[in-house]
Design brief:
Layout (H helix, E strand, L loop, with lengths): L4 E9 L2 H18 L5 E7 L7 E8 L2 H9 L1 H9 L4 E10 L15
Antiparallel strand pairs: 1-3, 1-4, 2-3
Helix pairs in contact: 1-3
Length: about 110
C-alpha cells in the first residue's frame, strides 16, 4: 500500500467580503474536486473565533494523485483567482504514517 499524501493549508482572508468571495470560489472548485478519484478528503474548516481564516485539510491517495489534482482546470482556476482575497497563506505538506482514513468504494456499474 502506498502512503497517503496530505496538505494542511491555512488561508487568512483580507476582510469579511473577501472571505465570502473566497468561500464562493472554493464552492465552485469543489464541484470538480468531487470527481477526482485520488482525492480522498478535501475539507474546509473555519477555526472558532477566527472568522477570516479557512483551514483546508486535503488527503490524496498518494503524491501522484496530488499532482493530478494540481493539473485539473478547476484547481488551476482557483490558484489563479485566490490571491486577490488573501492576506496570507501557510502550507504544510504531510506524508501519512498511520490512522483511520475513508474507505474507498468501487464505482458502481450501469
Amino acid at each position: 500500500m502506498t502512503s497517503g499524501y496530505a496538505l494542511n493549508v491555512r488561508f487568512t482572508t483580507r476582510d469579511a467580503d473577501a472571505a465570502q468571495r473566497f468561500d464562493a470560489l472554493v464552492a465552485r472548485t469543489l464541484e470538480g474536486i468531487r470527481n477526482e478519484p485520488g482525492t480522498l478528503v478535501y475539507v474546509v474548516h473555519t477555526p472558532e473565533n477566527a472568522p477570516l481564516v479557512r483551514v483546508f485539510y486535503e488527503l490524496y491517495a498518494d503524491y501522484d494523485a496530488f499532482q493530478a489534482h494540481e493539473r485539473q482546470p478547476h484547481t488551476k482556476q482557483m490558484l489563479a483567482e485566490r490571491e486577490q482575497y488573501l492576506a496570507s497563506t501557510e502550507v504544510e505538506f504531510m506524508t501519512e504514517l498511520t490512522g483511520k482514513r475513508p474507505a474507498t468504494t468501487p464505482t458502481e456499474g450501469p
